[in-house]
Amino acid sequence: MSYDEKKYLEDRKKTWKKFIDLTIKGSIIIAIILILMAIFLTNS
């Protein structure tokens, strides 16, 4: 097995993109949950 720099970098970019996508989606879901909690749990 030889070291293939292009394949290594491509794999890392795919992993990084998946990580960023998951982080963004998770942050959006958490923000939506917090907004809904603020709306429904405040006594006005």
Helix/strand/pairing class, anyone? Answer: mainly alpha
**Taking Cα atoms only, what radius of gyration do you get, to the nearest Å?**
19 Å
How far apart, in Å, are the first and last alpha carbons? 67 Å
User: Which percent range describes the beta-strand content?
Assistant: under 5%
Major sheet details = none
Overall, the morphology is rod-shaped
Supply the number of helical segments: 1
Indicate the percent of residues in helices.
Answer: over 70%
Mean pLDDT: 93
> Which segments are poorly predicted (pLDDT under 50) over 5 or more consecutive residues?
none
Element-by-element helix/strand order: H
Strands, count = 0
Textual characterization of the structure:
Helix content is 84%, strand content 0%. The radius of gyration is 19 Å and the shape is rod-shaped. The model has no long low-confidence stretch (mean pLDDT 93). With 44 residues, the protein is mostly helical.
